[in-house]
Amino acid sequence: MTLKNKIIGSKKAIENFQFVTINGKVIFHDKERITRIARAYSQVVKSAINPLLEGKSIEELTKDLYSILPNYIYLETALKQANTIVEELLDKEDEKGEIIHAKIKRFWFASRGNKSDRGNRNVKFHVMDDHVLVKVKDPWGKWIVGKAYFGKEYLSLLKELEELANRKEEGYGAMITFKHYPMIHLQVPLWLYLKHFSTQKPSGYGLVAGFDLNGDRLNVVVVDRQGKIITFKTWWYTEAVSHGYSKEEVEALRFNALSQSLKFLVRIGVDYVVFEDLFVIKRRKFTKSRKGNRKISKFAKKQMLIHGVIKALRLGFNVILINPRGTTNSEEHERLMRERGFDRHTASAYLIALKGLGMINDIK
Q: Which residue of 181, 267, 324, 350 is most buried, as measured by CB atoms within 10 A?
């Protein structure tokens, strides 16, 4: 186990929280050329999925698809995204063992970061007084110039990232999307983001809070250093699983519950918050209910986890990521529900808190 950026967990768990994505609207002077990159990039992703499912290697596909997108960094990034989609498809096999096919309708493009390339080989930026000048590499021609508009609160952060990139000390990933209008998404190093946006909470009493994240509710159980329950609480957002709410509205409901819960934990003196490391879960457990399966597939639990971890770090908590094995289906879980009268989600939150406490004790 290791402690880095106030995160306690396995090395693999911590690797998933090295960057924070910030978003800005971008206006390009040459829409046709920027759209051409996106269409080629998306075509590479689509073209790579079936061959990857059949076992073809990324190295082979790099040679096969270079004619579609003649830029190694773009191509490498696209193939890695295609491989991620393939892994998710394999994880989402339905109860009959059949692979659910991907439907990719949108188009976008991305370029991985590298500090040796002064941040990013294909996407450069320069911070101005009220906007950010963006330059995008065209595989078939010269650089494409645009203006990006982030919130003013991000400009000092981006200025420092630009300086670090120019000194070859930090890299940043970049993505351009086109859902309603062009957007640029920059991956900022977590430590730099926290430097600019963290607030220091008062020292607590060493209390540990376990979180159980669900589609319609958030359960939290707080324990002391001996594992005794101090309090437990549920934040409901049942509207999130009802019809008539957009993805953005549902996301806002869940994120608001996380924010409210963390503010509550600041007031009662919690120092450690514990989440399940969802990145170690390989397969989703589907039910016999089609309605239930839809809820499982639509609930972006990892996205909620990422938001919770970043928000907790910003507020000054230590974050612990535990292996979820045994926190939902186990003899101990059933015993807690039976003996303490807990519902399934409160029992899970309690076990998550105890696992986090055990990791703290192992480190000391």
A: 350
